[in-house]
TrEMBL record:
Protein's UniProt name: D-2-hydroxyacid dehydrogenase
Keyword Cytoplasm: no
Family matches, as InterPro entries: D-isomer_2_OHA_DH_cat_dom, D-isomer_DH_NAD-bd, NAD(P)-bd_dom_sf
Domain of life (superkingdom): Bacteria
């Protein structure tokens, strides 16, 4: 946009005010709003910063976006704003790819170690003051399939390889010689490769092609000793099928950070299963993550003001930022 024009920026903040916004407030008219006021904030706005990235308020307020040219969401996943009107519009969509890569990779390694070293049971036995010697598993040499070969998947692959695991990937295109995954399998042939894996990590973006990809057929293809870890989107999984696979021993365990309904309902059987590790959508949330999200937005804001190319531009047909993966 023109560097002499003062832009109007709508910020969907939810119950948290984004930090470090003072420089942007000096360069733009900033309208902070919650979901109820979003439509009013969008009228005449040039840009929208969806800081409350879990909100589903944007589609309902979209009719008021009469001047919008750019929308930035403070997350890597863009499914909350991938509705038909946005897809078909000229509004540029950017995301916060890159902020959570390493912290999510550390989370995945932590989950694998927790399963292999039986740490949840150790905590339960400690609470009971029970001394029960057990043997634990090695992680070195274990096979891992990372389903999703974007930046987060690549960070996971690099860290797991450094810990001695054998890593491969599953993505849109099958190929060999990938620098991080070695072999990348085609996601649409997933069940052919699942039987070879000790751990399966779901980190794929949520699209029409990936929704429900981990269903009864997928879990039946996995070996009984395998563990499933989901740090992508809850909707990648058919939850009832996962519960049944865990209940019957079709798979050995699951580490779950995302769910199709959040918060996870109190009545969900996943809460009480001994072979399930539940965390509240926090795998990427390191200390300082909110500041890091605003840094990414601010970098793009100054680029946008200067008419420079934006980073992390989402292909609205694909539903994510294109990469080599």
């Amino acid at each position: 946009m023109s560097g002499t024009e003062t832009p109007v920026l709508a910020v969907l903040r939810g119950d948290k005010h984004p930090p470090d916004m003072e420089p942007i407030e000096e360069a733009a008219v900033v309208r902070y709003t919650d979901a109820d006021g979003l439509a009013d904030a969008l009228r005449g706005a040039d840009a929208l910063f969806v800081y409350d990235f879990l909100s589903s308020a944007v589609p309902a307020a979209w009719h008021a976006a009469d001047r919008l040219r750019w929308l930035h969401i403070a997350s890597a996943g863009v499914d909350p704003v991938m509705f038909p009107e946005l897809r078909e519009s000229d509004v540029v969509l950017t995301n916060s790819r890159g902020v959570f890569d390493d912290s999510i990779a550390e989370y995945v390694l932590g989950q694998i170690l927790a399963f292999a070293k039986d740490l949840p049971r150790s905590l339960r036995l400690q609470a009971q003051r029970t001394w029960q010697h057990r043997e634990s598993e090695r992680v070195q040499g274990r096979s891992v399939l990372v389903v999703g070969t974007g930046p987060i998947g690549r960070s996971i692959a690099r860290l797991l390889k450094a810990a001695g695991l054998r890593v491969s990937g599953a993505g849109r295109r099958e190929r060999a010689g990938d620098p991080d995954f070695g072999t990348v399998y085609a996601s649409d042939r997933l069940t052919e490769y699942l039987p070879e894996m000790d751990y399966v990590v779901a980190v794929a973006p949520l699209t029409e092609q990936t929704k429900g990809m981990f269903d009864a057929r997928a879990f039946a293809a996995m070996r009984p000793q395998a563990r499933f870890i989901n740090v992508g989107r809850g909707e990648l999984v058919v939850t009832a099928d996962l519960v049944e696979a865990l209940r019957t021993g079709a798979i050995a365990g699951a580490g779950l950070d995302v769910f199709d309904t959040e918060p996870l309902p109190p009545e969900s059987p996943l809460w009480t299963m001994d072979n399930v590790l539940v965390s509240p959508h926090m795998s990427g949330d390191f200390i300082g993550w909110r500041n890091a999200l605003v840094e990414v937005f601010a970098d793009n804001f100054w680029r946008w003001r200067a008419g420079e190319p934006l980073r992390n531009v989402v292909d609205k047909k694909l539903g994510y930022v294109p990469s080599s993966g």
